[in-house]
TrEMBL record:
Family per record: Belongs to the glycosyl hydrolase 32 family.
GO molecular function: beta-fructofuranosidase activity
InterPro entries the UniProt entry points to: GH32_Enzymes, Glyco_hydro_32_N, Glyco_hydro_beta-prop_sf
Domain of life of the organism encoding this protein: Bacteria
Protein name: Sucrose-6-phosphate hydrolase
Gene symbol of the encoding locus: sacA_2
Boundaries of every Glycosyl hydrolase family 32 N-terminal domain copy: 9-111
Keywords for the protein's UniProt record, in alphabetical order: Glycosidase, Hydrolase
Catalytic activity, EC: 3.2.1.26
Length: 118
């Protein structure tokens, strides 16, 4: 039997080549699976992190906030799949573009569609 446990950890580097593990910063919340692919950015005095996950057969992106990159507050669900939008969302990114916030992710489990050529 294989047991897969996912969590987010912190590593630091002074040169971008050699890294030191600092330990776990976010454990997978109860009931979530495929909790992975964190994206971190700074906004004002706070750090933010989005992470892809799955609850049952529903994909979602969760948002976290921190002042020091070590203690993280779960701010809840940023976005969640509706019917046909995939059972799991991975590789989330959340950024500003032309003054608007954009959430981008890779959904897993969507039905394939054929694109027609003009």
């Amino acid at each position: 039997m294989t047991i897969s446990i996912r969590c987010s950890v912190l590593a630091t580097s002074r040169d971008g080549i050699h890294f030191e593990r600092q330990g776990q910063i976010i454990d997978t919340p109860a009931g979530l699976h495929h909790f992975r692919d964190p994206k971190v950015w700074r906004e004002g005095n706070d750090w933010y992190l989005v992470v892809g996950s799955r609850v049952g057969d529903t994909g979602q992106v969760r948002l976290y906030r921190s002042r020091d990159l070590r203690e993280w507050q779960d701010e809840g669900i940023l976005a969640e799949a509706q019917e046909g939008m995939g059972f799991m969302w991975e590789c989330p990114d959340f950024f500003m573009l032309d003054g608007k916030r954009v959430l981008m992710f890779s959904p897993q489990g969507m039905a394939a569609e054929r694109l027609s050529q003009p």
